[in-house]
Amino acid sequence: MTIQNELLKLITKGRRTTLEEMKTSLNKRAGSQFLTVLTKTIPKMRKNGNPYFGKVSKISRFNGTVGFDYDAAVERRLNKEGTPLTAFSRGASALRVELDAVGRLTPFSRHPETGAEYLRMMLTPSATESVFVSNDTGEEVLRTDLEPYLSDTGGYSNQGLKDPVRIITPRVENIVAVVTSGETLVVSS
Fold first, then answer.
1. How far apart are CA 49 and CA 52, in angstroms?
2. pLDDT at 5
């Protein structure tokens, strides 16, 4: 099923909710939990000479886990690969994890300077699918047409892993829908 079809299905069959209700629902569940998240974002692109700049959105579907301990996940994977733990060079994150009232990890993190809130998600293998669409027509724009203008993404070389623990942190305001524990929440704007 394409992302466009999945998005239409979710929007028509999912329960409408506000952003705050969606966050409350995710925070209610203690421990890690599996999710599917759909986001709509403005892709990071170069401006100069780019005929697509400001005219394209990116719709993405991510499958993964929230409420996880990043360091422990990397260390488990290092052990599985037979790599010494010293291969992991912990870096500083620009985001601060949020804890609930009793000190447990929540699925969210916050930028300390801007206050922007993000969902922290550890991706499952082959967990990402994205499509680019025209803001004017809603028609798909091929990635091959955009590639000369797309910004490079960072890597995971600090983990020391052959198969890195992949993390995404979409801004909460860019979440369109969440599927968890059989419940589909569609965020109304």
1. 9
2. 63
